[in-house]
Amino acid sequence: MTHTASARFLIVGPQGSGKGTQGVLVAEAFGVPQVATGDIFRENVKGGTELGKRVQAIIEAGDLVPDELTSELVRDRLAQADAAAGFLLDGYPRNRGQVDDLEAFLSGRGESLDAVIELVVPREESITRLRQRAIDQGRTDDTEEIIANRLAIYERETAPILDVYREHDLVVRIDGVGTLDEVTERIFAALAERGLRPNGSGANDRSAGAA
Which runs of E-coded beta strand occur in 13-114? Predict the structure, then answer.
């Protein structure tokens, strides 16, 4: 078996698709950091940082943080030592402008993405999952209006970036409906078909048969 020299991934999917959970599992298996912009924003808000104060109102409204702020955070994070051999991006890039920014940053370092994981989940399923999450976690920011706004923004701005990556044959389409393990196995099997395999066993043991 040939192991992957680098693992630079992007995971894309609508809110409620489970991409955050799956992103953690993929990142752990490949031994690379998960760079989730949503988590970074929430940590800054919780910590009361200058950035946190600027983005708090935006997040609470269900809107997106401006490109320049997001790109700055991502560039700084990817420049850290633990991302030298790879990373998994979650929540960035979310539009064509950010795609171009990421491409410029990576090409400047002689790097490129290895795969773009697309989790495909019907809109109705996403809404059902998000409503249940709001109930389970008591999330005041997950009102029906906010949920609809987030999904509309994804469909309008983020989904089209997949066309760019399809032109470069980077997109791996994954059926996101099923149990957590079923979806995880589909992801690892699809990556393995492209020669992308974790350098160790660990979190990928569950997909050994499929891979």
Answer: 34-36, 86-90
